[in-house]
């Protein structure tokens, strides 16, 4: 399969999709969890509660991979961002507020965000991923531009 062009890749990553974020445990073993994400063409961003394993892993070792793919039943296509992640104390809830309506729809997003807001601003963090390498595979038959 051919790699996606940058334009194809950016369009693919701007669609609403679930990603898998892989981090490294204290023993060096990889572990992955599904996450919502945002791509701005240069960096990927994920929000999280502060006291979870993925955040502890990133604080200890910032090497991560974020993988996004098409579901079964459509032509295979995927993007993997390998890079470094930084945990930021500000911006987590703001990202959650932007993403919740996209992933949940308005009524459920409003209910969920109201609950999440009660946790307080210091409960949420922003994970910012800076790519070192981006790999991709375009759908079969896709032409490179």
What this model shows, in words?
- The chain is α+β, with helices and mostly antiparallel strands and 145 residues long.
- It has one domain (6-137): Roll (Pnp Oxidase, Chain A), CATH 2.30.110.
- Helix content is 30%, strand content 36%.
- It contains 4 helices and 7 strands.
- The chain has helices at residues 6-14, 53-60, 92-104, 106-118, and strands at residues 19-24, 30-35, 38-39, 44-49, 63-69, 78-88, 124-137.
- Strands 2-1-5-6-7-4-3 form a 7-stranded antiparallel β-sheet.
- Helix 3 (92-104) packs antiparallel against helix 4.
- The longest helix is centred in the C-terminal third of the chain and has 13 residues, at 92-104.
CATH topology: Pnp Oxidase, Chain A
- The proportion of strand residues reads 35-45%
Biggest beta sheet attributes: 7 strands, antiparallel
Side-by-side strand order of the widest sheet: 2-1-5-6-7-4-3
Category by helix and strand content? alpha+beta
Distance between the termini: 15 Å
Question: What is the 3D form?
Answer: globular
User: How many helical stretches?
Assistant: 4
> What is the CATH architecture assignment?
Roll
Please describe the topology of this protein.
Layout: H1 6-14, E1 19-24, E2 30-35, E3 38-39, E4 44-49, H2 53-60, E5 63-69, E6 78-88, H3 92-104, H4 106-118, E7 124-137
Antiparallel strand pairs: 1-2, 1-5, 3-4, 4-7, 5-6, 6-7
Helix pairs in contact: 3-4
């Amino acid at each position: 399969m051919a790699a996606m062009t940058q334009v194809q890749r950016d369009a693919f990553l701007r669609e609403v999709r679930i990603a898998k974020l892989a981090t490294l445990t204290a023993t060096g073993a990889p572990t992955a969890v599904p996450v919502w994400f945002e791509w701005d063409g240069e960096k990927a961003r994920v929000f999280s509660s502060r006291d979870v394993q993925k955040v502890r892993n990133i604080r200890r070792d910032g090497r991560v991979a974020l993988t996004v793919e098409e579901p079964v039943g459509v032509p295979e296509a995927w993007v993997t961002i390998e890079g470094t992640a930084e945990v930021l104390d500000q911006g987590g809830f703001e990202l959650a507020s932007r993403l919740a309506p996209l992933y949940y729809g308005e009524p459920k997003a409003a209910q969920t965000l109201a609950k999440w807001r009660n946790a307080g601003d210091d409960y949420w963090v922003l994970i910012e991923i800076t790519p070192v390498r981006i790999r991709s595979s375009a759908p079969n038959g896709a032409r490179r531009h």
